[in-house]
Amino acid sequence: MAVSVVMPALEMAQETGKLVSWLKEEGDPVRKGEILLEVETDKAVVEVEAAGDGILAGVTAKPGDVVQVGRTIAWLVQPGEAPPATASRDVATGRRTDTVAGPPAAAAPTVGVPTGGARISPKARRLAQEKGVDLSRLKGSGSGGEILADDILAAANVALGSGPGDTATQSLESGRHRGLTPSPVSSIGRLMAERTTQSWTTVPHFFVTRDLDAGALSAARERMLPAIDRSHGVKVTYTDLLVAIAARTLTKHPRLNASWTAEGIVSHEDVNIALAMAVENAVVTAVIPRADRAAVADIAVRRRDLAERARAGRLQPSDIAGATFTISNLGMFEVDAFTAIIVPPQAAILAVGAIADRVVPVDGTPGVRPMMTITLSCDHRVVDGARAAEFMRDLATAITSPQL
Question: Does the annotation mark 205 as catalytic?
């Protein structure tokens, strides 16, 4: 029996995916679990495994295509078997066409048809209404001519820059005449920009900051380093310790491990900590699942593995899915403090600054201590100020007394 290969949904609220490459040629035999294709999201280039055994056939998407989530892009068939095909009506034109059969319609986001006849995703339609974009004059960039969110944003930018008094546009055009051209942005970078903009403009952020004595945390790391290095071959970092401490603290504060949805607040049973990792031209977030139950050594091994594969562009779908809370540590870059933008639908993200010596009161007299600043960004729809303060109080206690 033929097995469909569909564009997977690797993230919540994902509507499309960009096909980076096929790792098998049409006609090649494929085994279940083999890496079959690479898909690019706003977080990473992700390897997708084959869902079954068979021969790759009926490929309808090529590298570079942006494809709707849930759409069938190939089949895994048995020897002598042809890829299934069904007669369907083309949404945009109304003509009957032979198309490769896909999964049930519920597997993909509902797509509407604007006045001009092109298909459009619900997200793009909402953006068009917000930005005042005329859909009847818009040509979609999706693989089937679908109008995507990027098309709406591009059209809105053109509309904003079309007036004679737009000095920013005039300046840019003047720069082009002088040989200055905009630097190209990768699709990961563009999608990341879209998501962070959406979060910043739609999620009501507020921030809670604490300055902490990191002396006990440093001492705990020094104690653990030799043993874990010998047993697991990995050096424990401050990030590893913070993942373990934050995850255990989150079990006492479930509202910080929750998400805002249209139906209400959803509390997550597992504590899955995402780590923001810098890769070339972008930042990705990779997940340490059930971090509240993981030993520090296991967290360190997982973190190292994720970082290596993120830099190589070889993250798996499971590596970026299911995060319930994010930690962004810029201490290694000697950043004292910063605030981070929430990654929807999570309720909070923790920003960690560098550990540095500061003059602070010690038993009533000035002293020099290794201090660090942590800042919690919260979604006010899910978390109020009191809950955030209580979480930060318990987190500070755990960081300053990690032996407990």
Answer: no
